[in-house]
Amino acid sequence: MTIRDLILQQLANGLILGSFYSLVALGYSMVYGIIKLLNFAHGDIYMIGAFVGFAALSVISGFLGAGWLGILPAMACSMLAVGILGIVIQRIAYRPLLSAPRLSILISALGVSILLYNTVMAITDGEYMAFNVGLGWKGVSMGSVYITYTQIVLVSATAVLMIALYIFVHKTMYGKAMRAISIDHDACRLMGIDVNKVIALTFCIGSALAAAAGVMAGVYYGSIHFFMGFIIGLKAFTAAVIGGIGSIPGAMVGGIVLGMLEAFGTQLPFVGSEWKDVFAFAILILLLVFRPTGILGRTEIERM
Amino acid sequence: MDANPIATSPPENGKTKASARLPALLDLMGRRASRLIVYSLLFCAFMTIPAYANNYVLEVMSNVWFYVILALGLNIVVGYAGLLDLGYAAFFAVGAYTTGILTAKFGVNFWLTIPVAMFFSILAGVIIGGPTLRLRTDYLAIVTLGFGEITRIAARNLKISGGASGLIGIERPSFFGYELSQIVHYYYLFFFLSILAVFVSHRLQHSRLGRAWQYVREDEDAAEAMGIPTVGIKLYAYVIGAIFGGVAGCFFAAKMTAISPETFMFTQSVLILLAVVLGGMGKIPGVIVGAFALVLFPEVFRGIGSLRMLVFGVVLVIIIIYRPQGIWPDRRD
Fold it and tell me: How far apart are the C-alpha atoms of A279 and A273, rounded to whole Å?
C-alpha cells in the first residue's frame, strides 16, 4: 500500500466515522445553543435509536427484506420514536429545571442517561445484539483502496439529513424561532414565540438525528450494545466543541474533523488503536484550553 | 425587597417553618451538648459493631466508610466549590494503582506509598484542573468524564499497571508489626479514616478557603469582583478532593490486595456523585447519610440486583426536581 492509498483509505474511514460523530454532535450543539444544557443523555439517545431501529428492522425485514429497502423504513421508525422520546425526556426531566442552577439540570441529565442505559441493559441482559443486514461487501475500488456501497450510502444519507436540517433551520419559521431563542429567550417570549414548544422541537430533531446515527452505526458495525452511546456521546461532544458548541455548521465540521483526526491519529507509530479514545479526549482537553470557542464558534460576551 | 412584603414573605415563612423545627428543638436542649451526646453515642455504636456483627455486616460497613471518605472528598469539589466532577474515580484509581504498583512490583512498604499517592493525586488534579477550571462548569464535567476514561484506558493498556487483568498480590499493610488482614481491621481503619475525613472537611468548610468556595459557588463573578482568585480557589478544591480520593484508593488497594481497571469505570464516579447529591451537597452529615443510603440500598434490596442503577437514575431525577437540596441539606443563609 502506497502512502497515497493509505491517505485515501484513512480519508474514507475518517469520513464515515465523522458522519456518525457529526449527526450526534448536532443534537448536542442544538440543545446547547438553545438552552445551554449539555445533554449527557444524548449518547444514550443514540443507543436507544440503534435498538429501536434493530427492533423495527426485525419486524420490517419480514416484508421488505434486510436490504436498504428494509433499513430505511426502520430508520424512519426509529427517528420518529426517538424524537418523541426526546420530547418526553425534555418535558419530564429538563423543563422543570430550566430556571434552576446549572448544576441541577446537568445532574438531571446524568440521571436520565443512567436510567436509559440501565433500562436497555436490563432488557438485553447486557448482551451484544447482532444487526443482521444483507448488504454484502460490494463496493468500488481505487487502487488498493476499497470503499463499500454501504459506506457510500451512509455518508450520503448523513449529507441528506444535514442539508435537510440546514434548510429547516434557515428557511422555515420554526428554524428562525430556534435561532432567535438561542439569542434571547425573554425577547422571543415577548414576540409571541412559544418558547417551550420550540425547545421541545429542538430536542425532537436532535434526538431523531442521533437515532439515525444509531441505526447507521448498527448497520455499519453489525452489532449494538447498551453501552455504545457512552463513548460516542463523549466523542460527539468533543466534535461539537471542535466545531464551536452551539453552532450547527460547526457540529457538522467538527464531527468530520474529529473522524479524520482519529483515522489518521491511530496510524501514527506510537498511537495504536487501543489509545484512540485517549487521543480524542486529549484533543478535547487541548482544544478547551487553547480555543474553547472552537473552529466556527462565536466568542461569547458574558453580561451581568 | 421592602417594597412588596406581601409577595415575598409568605413563601419564605413556609420554607423556614418546616426546616426550623429540628434545629429549634436542638437549641432548646442546648445545642452543643446535645450534639456532643449524639456524636458520642454514634461513635460508641459504630465502635462496638464488630463485637456482635458477622463478617458480612463488617464487609458492608467497611464499604460504607470507604464510600463516606470518597463522598466527602467529592463533596469538597461538588458541594463546597460547586464544580461538577464526573471523573472522580480517576483519583481513586491513581491512589490504588500507586500503592498497587509500588508494593506489588517494587516491594515498597505500604505506608510509604501514601505520600507518593498523594503526590500523584495532586499532580493529576493540577494537570486536569489547571487548564479546565477556567471554563464553565458543564465543560468541566465533560472534561473530567473524559479524564476518568483516559485514566481507566491507560490502566488497561499499560504494562506496569497489569493491563486488563489488573494487579494482584498487593501487600497487606502492617501496623507496628501486626499485619492487617482481617475484615475487622479494615472496618476500624476505614472508620477512623472517615472520622479524619469528617474532621478535615469540617475544618475546611469553616476556614477562609471554605468561605471562598461558598462564595465562588454562589456567585463567581461577584466573588472575583471582591478579589477572590477564583481559578486558584477552584484548583484548591479540586486538588484537595483529589487527595481524598487518592488516599482512599491506597487503602482500597490494601484491603482488596487486587485491583483491576474495571473497578474505576464511569459508574463508580457516578455512584460517588450520587452519594453526594442524594445526601445533600455541601453538608457533611448529609453526605454521610448519602453514602450510607448508597451502599445499604443495594444490600437491603438484593432482590432487584441489576435494576438498582436504573432505580438510581430515576431517584436522581426525582430528587433533583423535587428536592434539589438532598435528603439532609445544608442550611444556607
Answer: 9
By the 8 A CB rule, do A264 and A24 touch? no
Distance of CA A190 to the CA centre of its chain: 32
**Residue-level length of chain B:** 333
Query: Which of B310, B319, B332 to mutate to test binding with chain A, by most A CBs within 10 Å of its CB?
Result: B310
Number of domains in chain A: 1
More confident residue, A49 or A185: A49
For residue B149, give the nearest of A274, A281, A292 by CB distance.
Answer: A281
Per the structure, the complete domain to which residue A103 belongs is given by 8-136+150-290
Find the helix or strand (DSSP H, E) in which A40 lies: none
Chain A residues within an 8 Å CB radius of B142: 38, 234, 237, 284
What element of type H or E holds B252? helix B230-256
* A189 domain residue, yes or no: yes
| Cβ contacts of A274 on chain B, cutoff 8 Å | 153, 156-157
A104 and chain B: CB distance < 8 Å anywhere?
Answer: yes
Q: Per mean pLDDT, which of A146-155, B7-16, B25-34 is the most reliable?
A: A146-155
When mean pLDDT is compared across A281-285, B54-58, B305-309, the lowest value belongs to: B305-309
Give A103's contacts in chain B (Cβ within 8 Å): 78, 82, 84, 137
Rg (CA), chain B: 21
Question: C-alpha cell of B229?
Answer: 482568585
Instruction: Determine, yes or no, domain membership for A205.
Output: yes
In a domain, A170, yes or no: yes
ipTM of the complex: 0.80
Give the mean pLDDT of B272-292: 83
- Structure pTM? 0.81
Q: Domain count for chain B, please give it.
A: 1
Query: Domain with A120 in it: what CATH number?
Result: 1.10.3470
Distance from CA of B133 to the nearest CA of A (A): 10
Residue span of the structural domain in which B227 resides: 52-264
Grid cell, residue A215, equals 441505526
Pairing state between β A129-130 and A223-224: antiparallel
Residue A295 domain-assigned (yes or no): no
Contact check, Cβ <8 Å, B137/A111: no
**What is chain B's mean pLDDT, rounded?**
80
pLDDT tens-place string over residues A195-244: 899 999 999 999 999 999 999 999 888 889 888 888 888 888 888 888 88
- Whether the CB of B149 is below 8 Å from some CB of chain A: the reply is yes
What's residue B5's pLDDT? 41
From chain B, pick out residues whose CB is under 8 angstroms from the CB of A114: 270, 309-310, 312-313, 316
